[in-house]
Amino acid sequence: MILLRRLLGDVLRRQRQRQGRTLREVSSSARVSLGYLSEVERGQKEASSELLSAICDALDVRMSELMREVSDELALAELAQSAAATTPAPVRPMLGSVSVAGVPPERVTIKAPAEAVDVVAA
């Protein structure tokens, strides 16, 4: 599941880091607690429009630019998610069950493909 708050937080963090600014600097400029801004950046808290506006002002970034970048990230995440859902998982060949009860161990030879094979003794 794609969470908008995580994408938004990632974009905010990248904006801040591009400017070489710390959480403390931006939280002070935006008048938001450092802990809360950190939670927003990590996608743990939903930011209100007022809070986003204050953070954008502190970063000197237009909210429309921020949302455009979030929208681009969302589009990529949706494409990746739909591609993963339509790509079938690789099929691993199944070996049939073979009983070797009553056969001396030195007489049993198992030849298997290079893939891992589980052998269970009865």
Structure, explained:
The structure is a single chain. With 122 residues, this protein is an all-alpha fold. It is 54% helix and 0% strand. It is built from five helices and no strands. The chain has helices at 4-18, 23-30, 34-41, 49-59, 63-86. The mean pLDDT is 84.
Q: Quick summary of this structure?
A:
This protein is mainly alpha-helical and 122 residues long. The chain has helices at residues 4-18, 23-30, 34-41, 49-59, 63-86.
The percent range for helix content is: 40-55%
Beta-strand percent range: under 5%
Structural class: mainly alpha
Largest sheet: none
- Please report the distance between the alpha carbons of the first and last residues: 43 Å
* Rg calculated over all Cα atoms: 27 Å
What is the helix/strand order?
A: HHHHH
Q: How many extended strands? A: 0
Give the overall pLDDT as a whole number.
Answer: 84
Number of helices: 5
**Would you identify the regions where 5 or more consecutive residues have pLDDT less than 50?**
none
Task: Provide the fold topology.
Blueprint: H1 4-18, H2 23-30, H3 34-41, H4 49-59, H5 63-86
Short descriptors:
122 residues; mainly alpha; single chain; 5 helices
